[in-house]
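Write out the 3D structure for:
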Amino acid sequence: MPVLTLKQQRALNALTQTTMAAELAEKQAYDLDCDEWAHRLPAAVQHLRRLWGAARQRTADQRHLRARAQVLRAQVPTGYTYLTQCHSGLTYRAMLFQDYTLDLVMLTPGQVTPIEDEPEFDVDTHNRWATILNANVLLVPLGVSLSWTDHTCQGALLLTAEGRYLASARVHDHGHVDVWTDDGPVSLVYTRFDVPAGEEVMECQRRTVTRALAGEFRPQGQPA
């Protein structure tokens, strides 16, 4: 798997988001003729529902086409499998085809398995990847998520649900993530190993999330 720049990774993340949105819009448009309201509503109202569904599907398809063009402009190599994220914080294994479409497989926090034929994905990288996945389980309900910035998963961005930048973070090998500030690192999530039965428990510093959402960690000159 080639090492991606931040611009390329963002383009792939956007393509993942628009791919899922386009598929959802297509399904919803189809469901308008099959759901319980299809035969209950007057014909005129059902016609308006179809028009609304078709318009939403066109909008999603147009955004998907723009995202494909963005990946093309970013010169992301095709024929490889990448790790991508969408705004919900979910992580996908994405195969990028020559026509700049994706075949997506959603990964759960427990699915920390190496990508085949990728020697640069060492044990520490997978530990950091697992940390990001597990951290997002805690962070997404709070309206934020982590998105890695390179294939080593050492650096990450803290983003809002809409993809707005809040802070830069560093991911450690064993379940810790710090937000970087001018005054040094601030803990975002950490893992406790002192619990009974040898279990590991990850916890979130909600105060850090609140401060990040307030813009406290955004570097000067960074747009809101």
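Residues 121-218 form one domain.
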